[in-house]
Design the sequence.
């Protein structure tokens, strides 16, 4: 496909968040410090919460210490945060913290100006929208519910993360999403700024477009031989007729 051919008749569009719909800088500069400052309180106050307990057990497994206490768990979380590691238990606990922050009004999410109008247009045209992000499903739901443009969750048909779909640079994760949505792979369009994710989606039979926004971490690297767009309004999406 030519890089300039950005017209797609598909049944669904699957969206990455960081660097694609939203600024990575907002996540790193606002959300990461917010979660870091609240890990200790979450581990102390919600240790009996099944989701917290499962995430803590995953941290202990990852660091090879089944008896690690809250301090050791928090240290591991902080280290992974410094490394920007997409560890599932880190993303789970961040999602819980961010959900609380959004609910309290401490946080409002970020979307690039070109994104929401196109999402609304694609949704109105009958194209289903899904999210696949390394951030947890809870974080994704809070993100879309608390945008500057209001609650956008009605636009989204489903949410996928590294726990319910798998790693974002593995083709089997995209096959799993295709199966879960019931959409044929060649009628799924994936939008992401990361070439490894675009490669994995294409390997699974999806269509893929790289989003290249100046200032984002992967802008200079580019998106390999994938079609590329600088903004969502450069992409024409319509509902597949067959």
Sequence:
């Amino acid at each position: 496909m030519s890089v300039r051919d950005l017209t797609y008749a598909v049944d669904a569009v699957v969206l990455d968040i960081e660097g694609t719909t939203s600024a990575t800088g907002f996540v790193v500069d606002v959300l990461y410090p917010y979660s870091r400052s609240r890990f200790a309180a979450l581990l102390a106050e919600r240790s009996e919460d099944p989701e917290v307990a499962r995430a803590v057990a995953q941290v202990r497994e990852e660091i090879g210490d089944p008896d690690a206490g809250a301090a050791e768990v928090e240290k591991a979380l902080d280290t992974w945060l410094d490394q920007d590691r997409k560890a599932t238990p880190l993303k789970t606990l961040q999602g819980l913290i961010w959900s609380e922050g959004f609910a309290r009004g401490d946080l409002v999410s970020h979307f690039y100006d070109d994104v929401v109008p196109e999402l609304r247009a694609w949704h109105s045209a009958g194209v289903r929208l899904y999210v696949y992000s390394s951030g947890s499903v809870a974080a994704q739901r809070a993100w879309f519910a608390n945008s500057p443009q209001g609650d956008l969750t009605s636009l989204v048909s489903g949410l996928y993360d590294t726990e319910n779909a798998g790693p974002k640079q593995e083709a089997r994760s995209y096959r799993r999403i295709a199966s879960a949505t019931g959409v044929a792979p060649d009628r799924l369009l994936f939008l992401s700024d990361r070439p490894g994710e675009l490669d994995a989606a294409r390997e699974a039979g999806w269509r893929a477009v790289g989003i290249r926004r100046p200032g984002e971490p992967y802008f200079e690297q580019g998106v390999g031989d994938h079609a590329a767009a600088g903004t969502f309004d450069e992409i024409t999406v319509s509902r597949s007729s067959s």
Remarks:
- The chain has a mean pLDDT of 95.
- Strands lie at 7-10, 12-15, 128-132, 158-160, 188-192, 207-211, 227-229, 236-239.
